[in-house]
Amino acid sequence: MCGIVGYVGPGDTVEVLTSGLKRLEYRGYDSAGVAVLDTNGEVAVRKRSGKLARLVELLEASPVPATGTGIGHTRWATHGGPTDVNAHPHLGDAGKLALIHNGIVENFAELRAELDAAGVELQSETDTEVVAALLGLEVAKAGDLEVAFRSVVKRLHGTFTLLAMHRDNSNKVVAARHSSPLVVGLGEGENFLGSDVAAFVGYTRRAVAVEEDNIAIITPELVTITDFDGNPVEFEEYEVAWDTEAADKGGWSSFMAKEINEQPEAVANTVRGRITDGHVVIPELSALGDETIKNVDRIVIIACGTASYAGQIGAYAIEQWARIPVEVQLSHEFRYRDPVLSERTMVISVSQSGETMDTMMAVKYANERGVTTVSVCNTQSATIPRESDAAVYTHAGPEVAVASTKAFTAQITALYLIGLHFGHVRGTLSAEAEAAAITGLEELPAAVAEAVATHDEIAQLAHWMADTRSVLFLGRHVGFPTALEGALKLKEIAYIHAEGFAAGELKHGPIALIDHGQPVFVLVPSPRQSPVMHSKVVSNIQEIRARGARVIALVEKGDTSVLPYADDVIRLPLVDSIFEPLVQVVPLQWFALELSTAKGLDVDQPRNLAKSVTVE
Ligand code: M6R
After folding, report:
1. Contacts of 427 (CB under 8 A, 6+ apart)
2. Which of 83, 322, 362, 388 is the most exposed place for a label (fewest CB within 10 A)?
3. Does domain 3-239 have CATH number 3.40.50.720?
């Protein structure tokens, strides 16, 4: 959470910072601020509560004559509410230095007491200002920003990315990373810092991922990376695989609408290059060796939110094709339950951002226990794939809307690929089943495109249902996690009470919720592929309809069996049962988006949320 950008160079500093913050705003939008060295050589700060647009207004009303050194921040509040005074940057050394922070300083109360005792007065309720004040004292003592910065970061507990600049060090920004993301952007005569590459991809695609417990110092000509003791660290640059166009809204009404539309391509790009001679081959897994894959006797998938539902769907596929028992655990539960792990366990993490703190800590925990870790991730060189033994990237392109859509379908696709690859390596997949699954996989982008085309009928439905206060979702088998995802989307962006249930669970309690007019989306399995499950779900529909539910049935084309009982029927393309989530989730994504729009809400930036949850 929180977006961070830093710049040194001859460019328009305020423009570089605000354009970076615009692309990082999905990381938090409670307040925003910038600090620059002005033409008098002083640190000038502009900051404001609310979204970035309010800061931009302030900068227009009260422009700052900046030279080429600056830092910028967009906040997701932790310590202290989203007020002007709590917004970053915070000042130290009597206003001579400015500092921004992503993370939580856990020992801030102790440090604050120390500052109180030294008679230092603070303006805000934040943990960040404590660090700025401490740094100020250290700079005054050491007379050197870098020395002072190293000594302060070593005293902090918790998680942090910190960026600091000082009046006496023009053309320099120092940054530290401890369990929060930090990347450097390498320019010509200018350099950048960011929480992720989105901060500077408009200016350069050459990037360096700063490693854990390292400090980066940028000047226009030089990037230096050291550990916290000042020992130089070697680093490698990489080229960012996407450009600004991929991260721009284009002509779409929202990023979420754009990203829902991009799903056929996201699925196709994730499959591309991974089918060779009729088998799924994932080159990124070759380092593990086939013996490791053959030896695995249990897989634990760890993830949070939408990624965990992708994991649940992947679990069905991996068990079906590779015959390995798979369980899915929420990352934040995993490491606190003293999980039973052995050298034959494999932990697969699923994360769009690759920076989710809960998942990152769970991966570290698994690594410490000597378990093989594989990451399914959408963000090149993010922390989780770098910490894992192997990384299988989804190629969905940058996802900006807080509500995950194309990353979800790409994650499921990657897990299908892993299931098929493992099945092939372990010899658990018949040639016939493998060929059928691969054909199904190759046909998925077209099927997803057909599902995307349900938009207009869903928009109509959402329009009629704009006053709905509660929606239920029912599914079975892979339809169950899809139902959970449909409910999460609705909670997240339309602020509507929604719950997903396994259809078989209905009579064990949830049916008591059914009352006259209660809308229920029912994900109906294919009658061709799963006749038994299909007939059971049709019975469920009859049961809830008899109790007054308004049934919206998602069926495969040609399935007329629910017509007598459904109020609305959404027809979806024919796919193999295991692939149904990829087509069934799309109308649910549209429904959440359209209901949010009908309620006049901000689809891309829902209240209280941030895209990347980088604090526990
Ligand atoms: O970046 P990650 O995939 O690790 O994020 C996990 C969840 O925070 C994320 O999927 C969240 O649930 C989404 N906002 C859901 O739309």
Report:
1. none
2. 83
3. no
Closest CA to 111 of 71, 143, 157, 171: 157
258 counts as catalytic:
no
CA distance 24 to 6: 12
From ligand 1's centre to the CA of 470, what distance in Å?
Answer: 22
Q: Is the CB of 402 under 6 A from ligand 1?
A: yes
- For 9-31, how does the pLDDT look when each residue is reduced to its tens digit (9 = 90+)? 999 999 999 999 999 988 888 99
Architecture per CATH, 453-616: 3-Layer(aba) Sandwich (3.40)
Q: Where are the domains of the chain?
A: 3-239, 249-451, 453-616
Candidates 531, 526, 520, 519; CA nearest to 571 is 526
Same CATH fold assignment for domains 249-451 and 453-616: yes
**Ligand 1 within 6 A of CB of 403:** yes
Q: Is 249-451 in CATH node 3.30.365.10?
A: no
pLDDT tens for each residue of 58-100: 999 999 999 999 999 999 888 888 899 999 999 999 999 999 9
Q: Is the CB of 267 under 6 A from ligand 1?
A: no
381 lines ligand 1 (CB under 6 A): no
Where residue 310 falls (left for φ over 0; alpha for ψ -120 to 50; beta otherwise) is alpha
Q: State whether residue 5 is helix, strand or coil.
A: strand
Nearest atom in ligand 1 to the alpha carbon of residue 384 is 4
What would the two tokens of residue 410 be?
């790409």
The atom number, within ligand 1, closest to the CA of 411 reads 3
